[in-house]
Amino acid sequence: MISVAEIAAAKRIPPARIKDLELERIAALGWRGLDNDQIGGWQLRAAGGWTGRANSVLPLGDPGVPLDEALAFVTSWYAERGLPPQFQLPLPAATRLARSLEERGWRDQRGAIVLTAETKNLRLPAKDLPPVTITDEPDADWLAAYHYRGNALPDVAIAVLKNATAPGFASVRADGTTIAICRLSVDEGWVGVTAVEVDPAHRRRGLATHLLAGALDWAKADHVYLQTEPDNTVALAMYEKLGFERHHVYRYYA
After folding, report:
1. What is the pLDDT of residue 44?
2. How far apart are CA 202 and CA 181, in angstroms?
3. 34 with 164: CB under 8 angstroms?
4. Which residues lie below 8 Å from residue 175, measured CB to CB, with a gap of 6+?
5. Helix, strand or coil, per DSSP, at residue 76
């Protein structure tokens, strides 16, 4: 369940020009399900169960039918695909829906903090490091370097990673080895930065910052968003030092 402290923290996030739901709509373009449907203003997404964003309902408006009817549709839709139903709830925008789900037995599972910045305002110091290379498809080395939640990638992952309008796969190589990666997607003037990973043997060299600088130079976007887990205090501190601001949070309910 959402705690009072989490709701209060979400409401203290400084307001930005773009609303929570609008930013999540853009982020959904950058990380899509492979199977998609809609009921009113709710987006239903499925992709074999790999990643929460690609396998959840994103409520961007009213479902157009009574809540219990909409939930029955959602439950049936995911059951047909062999998946448990879950929602991705942007907060505080979806606080009322979160409460209604809790009353019906749905439970808060996990979530993330979304950070944003104007790219021109970021403080990205130059690093004497190997160049950032960006391709439109992930090669074998990029895929081998990515461990989603510490696990090897399932077969469906490649299709999900490539399923965007303008994806980019950034990497830094040293002595023939890929030592840092991230994935990029550009939509409506925003670049989303995901799948950031640095080889443990090469951390504390500024590779994440170096990778981000190269990624933003490639994207030519005015704004950037990314997300990190609430307990990843090291990443939060790094991004805020660079000039990112906390925009909103989202939680997965199942």
Report:
1. 98
2. 12
3. no
4. none
5. helix
Cβ neighbors of 179 (< 8 A, separation 6 or more) are 145, 172, 173, 198, 199, 201, 202, 207
Length of the chain: 254
- For residues 118-132, average pLDDT: 88
Query: Distance between CA 113 and CA 118 in Å, rounded?
Result: 17
Strand partners, 228: 113
Residue 183: Cβ within 10 Å count: 23
Eight-state DSSP code of residue 151? B
Per-residue pLDDT reduced to its tens digit, 28-85: 999 999 999 999 999 999 999 999 999 999 999 999 999 999 999 999 999 999 999 9
Q: Scanning the structure block, which residue is given the tokens 């190269």?
A: 214
Degrees to nearest 5, angle at CA 195 with 192 and 197 = 130
Between CA 239 and CA 232, with CA 22 as vertex, the angle to 5 degrees is 25
**d(C-alpha 254, C-alpha 243), whole Å:** 34
Rounded CA gap, 166 and 142, in Å?
A: 17
Q: Residue type at 115?
A: L
% of the chain surpassing 90 pLDDT: 80
* CA neighbor of 163 nearest in space, from 33, 12, 6: 33
Integer Rg of the chain from CA: 18
150-206 pLDDT tens trace: 778 898 999 999 999 989 999 999 988 999 999 999 999 999 999 999 988 888 888
